[in-house]
Here is the input.
Amino acid sequence: MPPKTMRPNPVMPARYRAGKPVAPEPETSEEEESEEEAQQKPTASAPKATSFPSAKALSNNLKNVDLNARREQAAAQEAARLEAKRIAKAKEEEGFETEDSEEGSEEDGSESGEESESDEESSSDDGAARRKMLRPVFVKKDQRKMNGVSAPNGKSEEDKYAEEEAKRKAKADAVVQEQLEKNAAAKAAGKKQWDNDEDVLDAEAVDDTDGLDVEAERAAWKLRELRRVKREREKIEQEEAQIAEIERRKNLTPAEREAEDREFLKKQREEQGDRGKMGYMQKYFHKGAFFQDDAKEQGLDRREIAGAKFADDVNRELLPQYMQIRDMTKLGKKGRTRYKDLRSEDTGRWGEFGDRKGAKNDYMDDDRFKPDKGYQGGGATGANAKPIGERKRYGDETVRDGKRPRVED
Amino acid sequence: MSSHQADAKALLDDRGYSGQLIRGQNPAHLFEKAVRDRITESYYWKEQCFGLNAATLCDRAVELTHIGGTYGLMGKPTPFLCLAFKMLQLVPEKEVVLEYLNWGGDEEDMEGDQVQVDDDEERARRGEFKYLRALAAFYIRLAWEPVEIHKTLEPLLADFRKLKRRTRDGFTLTFMDQFVDDLLTKDRVCATSLWKMPTRMQLEDLELLDPRISPLGDEVEDLDKEDGDGKSMNGEESDGSVVSVESRHNGRHRERSFSYGSESD
Here is the structure.
């Protein structure tokens, strides 16, 4: 029964309040009584949902017992059962038992076959509505015919369950068996448990079995051994040669040593070849210290970028001063330096002293700074023309009292 | 000797290491930190190298199929490298390592007559497990003293068996004598920077070693007599390829000599 109030909170039990009735009022009780009477009448004749036939119905049936009628009833029941079976089979896919078939199956036990006809009609009428999912209704155990297969076999539930279990177990066993076989095969092939790599093919590509061709192996070994011996010998000879060379140079005089060095350097320069002259403001690239061997392999170790000329090389002298930079990538960037080259940045006067006599003095050419007109005198002019006495000479006799103030006695 | 621990915690402990030292250092430091980490995080190390001792290490080494350092993009270590690291942890005794090496050098001289007859027998005597031998050689190069290294590894230059080597990009074929030669001369083998050993010449000068007598011995002298210096060798063919030996470059000597010019007074 749905709760009387549709509120989320459950209905609390009624509390006792003094002076107020506890039980529901008599008006509602009257309504209930009338409902009960109405219900009793149909129950007397044909209750649709009861499991147990009422006593009255039973006694009525017993009075009206008739063998022929009974036989007809039995036949009708058979037909009805078959009908119900068919219907149940047809609905196996949906898996739901409708109330119509429920009624048909239940009525067989208690009622006459007339109901089955109505059942047929009702079933045909509800053909369209059968697609809808109806409320599942409880079916008695003997009337349950869900699996058309198991019912005729007569197997009980437990047997079926056991069968399924056995099947599942068999499947699991098969899977485990497969795994074990795979492991064994892998082990046989040489892969180890810890080794997840798929390198078995690679490993097998290289064959390390001995004794395939003993002569060839022995010959190869001889070759290697000889190579090793030769290598050792060469090393020894090199060492000895070095020591001999050092000894020899020790015994020479310094002059001879220098002569030898000069010769060697000359030869070296010849071998190197002339380096081209660097263009105006050409960027300098150092050849680097590390990838010499790689460069040698590619034949690039004798490169000289100093005198290189590109096809689209622009002569920097023709550019405006702002663009005459070594590294054109810096053009327009804040990080670009104004440094051009050392010579232009130099502010000193290197090596100029002592070269010029009568150094140019622009100040004396200007008329404003020349001495006054008619100046022929010595060095003193203007305020310096005051007469002065003779110069004191060292060693002359001086009049000691010359400057003493004279005071009358 | 301290008790043997199943895992390598004591070995990898940088500060508190108190086990055996190799040249005054924690043996694990013979491998670089990066390589050490890769080894310790690999599945092979975790599964297979746990709780090994000298005997069970043999079992693992026997299952080896290739030598190599790290491979692949991620620098995954080979089982060979993991076992070598385990050996560094264990620091086995000299006799044990020699047993791994399993080189019956003296036996050959005694049975000199029979050697030529049956190659299979000889090979069987030399030891069936070449990867175990390669592992021992690697360990010797890392852990022992120079004189002993030379004395022990040089006889192996006569073993010409094939080895599979795993490089960064795949597998290559190499030979035992080639591998041993690399160990003796190169700086970096199998993802490890081998510690710098005095060269053979230096040791000879110090009178610690005798000059090496190649197993070819007589043949070398014969060749020298026939061809002289700087000529190509003929007759030695392997797999159909003709071999010629590089002639000495005379100019090289002069360049070298002049480079010392400034030093002398």
